[in-house]
Amino acid sequence: MEKYKWWQKAVFYQIYPHSFADGNGDGISDFPGMTAKLDYLQDLGIDGIWLSPHYPSPFYDCGYDVSDYTDVSPEYGTLADFKHFLDEAHQRNIRVILDMVLNHTSDQHQWFRESRSSRDNPKRDWYIWRDGKGEQGSLDGLPNNWDSTFGGSAWEYDSATGQYYYHFFFKEQPDLNWRNPEVIQAMWDAVRFWLDMGVDGFRLDAVSTVYEHPDLPDHPGQSMIELQQAYINAKTREEFDQQEKAWQALFQYQIDLPEVHNLMKDLRQLVDQYEDRVLVGETDDLRFYGSGDDELHLIFNFPLMQSDGPLTPTWIRDNQKSRLASLPPQAWPCNTLGNHDNSRVFSRFGEGSVELGLPEPHTNDASRARLSLALMLTLLGTPFLYNGEEIGMTDYYLNDPALFRDNTSTYAYPLLINLAGKSPEEALKMAAMFGRDKCRTPMQWSNAPNGGFCPADVTPWLPVNPNYAKGINVADQEKDPGSLLNFYKRMLRARRSTPALITGDYTPLHEKAENYLAFLRIAPQEGQKCLVVLNYSDQELEISFNLPAKQARLIFSSHTRRSQVESLNPLNLQPYEVFIMELT
Ligand code: NOJ
Ligand code: CA
After folding, report:
1. Are residues 153 and 185 in the same domain?
2. Which of 487, 517, 540 is the last residue of a domain?
3. Rounded average pLDDT over 265-282
4. Do 145 and 280 have their domain in common?
5. pLDDT tens readout for residues 447-474
6. Spatial CA neighbour of 582 closest among 541, 534, 550, 539
7. Is the peptide bond before 570 cis (omega within 30 degrees of 0)?
8. For this structure, is 71 an active site residue?
């Protein structure tokens, strides 16, 4: 185990800083609140925190629009409050990585204010400014036909200087011009600022979008509006697959430019000047591993979570097969099932896919949530969990467009009515479902009003999911030995004390089985071999394993079992059982 780095052994936990813990009772989480919950996180058994952006920001994209890279947003506290949080986390052997938003700043960042102030401002070229093609302001006038991934043209006309600026995301998030060495210098200074303070690394936001084609050629395919229309109407698998391809063609000159890999190599060299730091890319593109140790340390295995409905053993096995085979030598995998951009694990991988309408829990959702955690903690690679998933928080669809805080919903709502012809009720549901507020609601700490997140008489920044009153909260679950929270704690402890689950090779077994997943994790250096079996069905199973094992020791089961030798010929599994055994 010594030869492995801390980030290979760690389990990460993503904190969404607006929603985690409100220390001063203003309805927004903050560093004093988060610091007070470090004991909770230590007891939960995680090793690292990924903190979504904590920088000053007008919050147009919930913090992913940074207006100062070397400070803390006032609602979260001060730089000193952050430093205290970091030190207190380190005291508890919890590392902290920050979110670094490279592609764009906020339009309120001082750099952009200067850049837009005049054509000859020294920072003009820090962003991507172009003349229009035709008459200013007319659609034909746009520098090209590129779209913003959040909708509409990627170009915004700025009347003060008569040019357009480029934004891959919202127009409030102008793209930095990474072809300008001064930009690189300024951004690497920000990276050093936090590394010098002692942060343990970064999650790199939207890395594939950093560069765009310098000649700005038009893309030849359909526009985003046409694709959105087709998406709304798509029904069959083929139609969805076609869609997928068309979307890639749409952004072909805006993402994945090869230049980004040299930039990542530079960043890696910078980070390697510090001891033991880590870079995690928000991408599933394996090219970001470089040759295995010269670009990013970790790349998310997003394809695993992109199943259409509930995860199946076949889907997981296929994913592992292709993913692990494609990793460059020395590259370490990284798995996740949920984050602040996606449906919550409990809703998404429950029994029924979340259809339009309120995501109602199904009978076996809680069992499936246990399987999802077991999968994260037993597959080869570093797991990332998302705050609230440990108590089974579910997606919460806002029932009033005025409550939307994610501007992707605000933007979509009128378009669904005016362009797609949906009724206001349908549009509301669709905008709530496509948007991301649903998975960002405040952490549910107890069954007190507002889920104990903030005082009863305070309106939290997003409504608390009312299911806090039905046992979906930390305090109630801490008292219940059978709760999901206690399951998380038990499994995290089991992983920590079982080296093969952390570093062992992954060998699939019974590769045709449709209702269960079985694999070995073998760590020869540790002299340890584990069998993991996850029953994805609501049936009892009897499975025979022809494994040469003199002795077997039960390491973990989600069900009650004798702790001594269990027979593997056959092994009987309860419905949805998580079963882990050491073979010697
Ligand atoms: C990815 C982030 O996870 C998402 O929340 C954000 O909107 C975009 N990048 C733009 O920064
Ligand atoms: Ca607060």
Report:
1. no
2. 487
3. 98
4. no
5. 999 999 999 999 999 999 999 999 999 9
6. 550
7. yes
8. no
Instruction: Compute φ and ψ for 321, nearest 5 degrees.
Output: -60, -50
Residues 141 and 289 in one domain: no
Both tokens of 196, joined, read 């010098």
Ligand 1 center–CA 53 separation, angstroms: 10
Task: Let me know whether 78 and 31 are in one domain.
Answer: yes
Q: Is residue 279 within a helix (H) or strand (E), and if so which, with residue range? A: strand 278-281
CATH code of the domain containing 552: 2.60.40.1180
What is the number of other CB atoms lying within 10 angstroms of the CB of residue 321? 13
Count CB neighbours of 569 within 10 A.
9
Instruction: Residue 126: give the domain boundaries.
Output: 110-166
CATH number at residue 147: 3.90.400.10
Looking at the fold, whether 340 and 262 belong to one and the same domain comes out as yes
Give domain status of residue 353, yes or no. Answer: yes
Q: How far apart are the first and last CA of the chain?
A: 19
Average pLDDT on 370-385 reads: 98
Atom of ligand 1 nearest to the CA of 52: 3
Does a structural domain hold residue 322?
yes
Q: How far apart are CA 204 and CA 265, in angstroms?
A: 13
Residue 460: inside a domain = no
Q: Is 282 an annotated catalytic residue?
A: yes
For residue 494, being part of any structural domain is answered with no
Range 218-245 burial, b when 16+ CB lie within 10 A, else e: ebebeebeebbeebeeeeeeeeeeeeee
Q: How far, in Å, from the CA of 246 to the mean position of ligand 1?
A: 21
The single residue of 205, 256, 395, 476 carrying the catalytic annotation is: 205
Q: What is the pLDDT of residues 147-185, one digit of tens each?
A: 999 988 999 999 999 999 999 999 999 999 999 999 999
Ligand 1 residue neighbourhood (C-beta within 6 Å): 61, 64, 101, 169, 205-206, 282, 340-341
pLDDT digits (tens, 9 = 90+) for 302-320: 999 998 788 999 999 999 9
Which H, E and C letters describe 501-545, residue by residue?
Answer: HHHCEEEEECCCCCCEEEEEEEEHHHCEEEEEEEECCCCCEEECC
DSSP labels for 247-271?
A: HHHHTTTTS--THHHHHHHHHHHHH
User: Could you give the strand order of the β-sheet that contains 505-509, starting from the edge strand earlier in sequence?
Assistant: 505-509, 516-523, 528-535, 578-583, 552-557
Tell me the two tokens of residue 307.
Answer: 């199943």
- For CA atoms 366, 372, 377, 379, give the dihedral sign: positive
Average pLDDT, the chain: 94
pLDDT at 580 over 90: yes
Number of domains in the chain: 3
Residue range 205-218: mean pLDDT, rounded: 97
- Determine how β-strand 528-535 pairs with β-strand 541-543: unpaired
Residue 314 and residue 347 in one domain: yes
156 near 172, Cβ under 8 Å? no
* Residue 138: per-residue pLDDT: 62
The residue to which tokens 């919460």 are assigned:
396
Mark whether 579 and 526 lie in a shared domain.
yes
Residues 58 and 192 in one domain: yes
- Residues by chain with Cβ below 5 Å of ion ligand 2: 22, 24, 26, 28, 30
Distance 17 CA to ligand 2 centre (A): 10
Write down the pLDDT at residue 355. Answer: 47
pTM for the model stands at: 0.96
CA distances from 117 to 155, 174, 175, 250 (A): 17, 14, 16, 31
Q: What is the CATH number for 274?
A: 3.20.20.80
